Amino acid sequence: MNQDSQFSRDADRSDTRPILIIPYMWIGDFVRNHTVVRVLNERWPNRPVDLLTTSLCAPLVDYMPGVRDGIVWDLPRSQLAVGRQLGLAKLLRERNYGTALVLPRTWKAAIAPALAGIPERVGFVGEFRFGLLNRWRWGEKKLPRFIDKNAALAQPDGAPVPPEWPVPQLRVPAEDIVRWRQANGLSAGAAVALAPGSVGVSKRWTYYPEAARLLAERGLEVWVVGGPAEKGLAQEIVAAGGPGVRDLTGTDLRNGVLAMAAAGVAISNDSGLMHIAAALGTPTMGIFGPTSPYLWAPLNGLAATVVQDESVLSCQPCQSTICRMNDHRCMRDIAASKVVAIAQQVLGV
């Protein structure tokens, strides 16, 4: 967005109190949270913005312009963890935040900001958080997309949803990419990054091994990117694709960020790595079946939104993590040859 955007026109430069964002901690949602950062940066250019983060998502903060600091604090998902909440509250109190934006609508997400005594605690009504939040927002269900719900909290109460939000950005220095290629013994040529993982089995396209083989046969270097959960699948893809395919899965998300930044094109399920690649500016192909591209595709836009050729199935989009109808046709009917042809068009080869 430019300096004449609706947010910068209403900028308040007199306020210097730091702001804390408590985001959703899934990787893709964490990336999309950068839109909230950018709205805050334009609305309050002199207020530092910090992000609460988990150890998993912490590497992303280093590549997010406009973020002062990431507060790494792992809270268990299924427990209240009173001691951890008290420890976090103590840390937040020491940082003298003026405002906390609590994006998740859970009770647990609002505990530490309240215990820390942050003066303004903004969030949507939900889970009986009266007393924990003191700047209530209403109308969450009227906002169509996840990003609308989150970024609206960075606007004045009652402000209309803009036609466009600022898109998430991740910036990786060019020298970091060069060092990463050298450390992994990779050439400087264009490569195709495959991201076969996702949260939810139904979102996983199953023809990555065949696609890797076809891409390698065309002389393209292929990288399989993901976390430890994708290690077995990566080995299967490497076995099918041959020596031109490399397994680059690992435990450090930073490795995935650098791989997506270095790739000439990324092919991904609806997953966190899709959002990372798009925010980096890497041409990204998103494969969609059970989820809606309108609701879940990156704001950055995709080089290609890949869906089945036939008309939409009656069960689409089901948003379910496991297919219970039509034998996973929404993903099974997307041929590897189609995906490879699109990738070649994107690469211009």
From TrEMBL:
The keyword Glycosyltransferase applies. Pfam families: Glyco_transf_9. Its EC number is 2.4.99.24. It catalyses: an L-alpha-D-Hep-(1->5)-[alpha-Kdo-(2->4)]-alpha-Kdo-(2->6)-lipid A + ADP-L-glycero-beta-D-manno-heptose = an L-alpha-D-Hep-(1->3)-L-alpha-D-Hep-(1->5)-[alpha-Kdo-(2->4)]-alpha-Kdo-(2->6)-lipid A + ADP + H(+). Coiled coil: none annotated. Belongs to the glycosyltransferase 9 family. InterPro entries: Glyco_trans_9, LPS_LOS_Heptosyltrfase, RfaF. It is an enzyme of class 2 (transferase). NCBIfam families: heptsyl_trn_II. Keywords: Glycosyltransferase, Transferase. The keyword Glycosyltransferase applies. The gene is waaF. It comes from Bradyrhizobium barranii. This is lipopolysaccharide heptosyltransferase II.
